[in-house]
Amino acid sequence: MKRILVLLIIICSFQAGKAQVNDMALGVRFGYGGGVSYQLGLSKTNRVELNGAFGLGGSYNYLRLTAAYHWVFDVGIGWNVYIGPAIAVGSLFKEDAGVGKGDDGLYILGGGQLGVDYNLQNLPFQISIDILPQFAIVNGYDDYYIDPAIGIRYVF
Question: How far apart are CA 57 and CA 94, in angstroms?
């Protein structure tokens, strides 16, 4: 896995100067819990992504806001790979006190995001697939989380 990640970073570093980040994009991200996703371009190769999510589980429910900073690399016409740090703040509502490690209330997670997106050439839409691994900093339900997701956003 480390070799694949290092190879991906090396390949993307050669393409960094050609990346084109959208000014703004708004849509949905479907992972473990769905929610609203907003991207704001900061430069040609950097952006911030904000995701507001909610999850309804059998033994717990949560609300979460995740912020991620992306370095974006162009890998082909319309295709981008992105990677960057992320932090999440949320509120956990457990139905069973014996489930998980954390308590009800505020939690904070830290980690990163790695994904690929495609900007449709003749339509103002972006499709993405990503993974958001995170670890508990304060009061996590578990020590480690992994959140794969598919997103679709309107670009403007």
Answer: 9
Structural domain contains residue 65: yes
pLDDT in tens, 32-87: 778 999 999 999 999 999 999 988 777 778 899 999 999 999 998 899 999 999 99
Residue 15 in any domain: the answer is yes
- The DSSP element (H or E) to which 37 belongs, if any, is strand 33-41
Its pTM stands at 0.81
Domain span at residue 57?
Answer: 1-22+45-102+133-148
Is residue 127 in a domain?
Answer: no
Q: How far is CA 66 from CA 39, 48, 113, 120, in A?
A: 12, 10, 10, 25
Identify whether the C-beta of residue 79 lies closer than 8 Å to the C-beta of residue 111. no
Backbone angles phi, psi at 146, to 5 degrees: -135, 125
Distance (Å) of CA 153 to CA 3, 26, 28, 43, 156: 31, 5, 6, 19, 10
Q: Check residue 5 and report its DSSP letter.
A: H
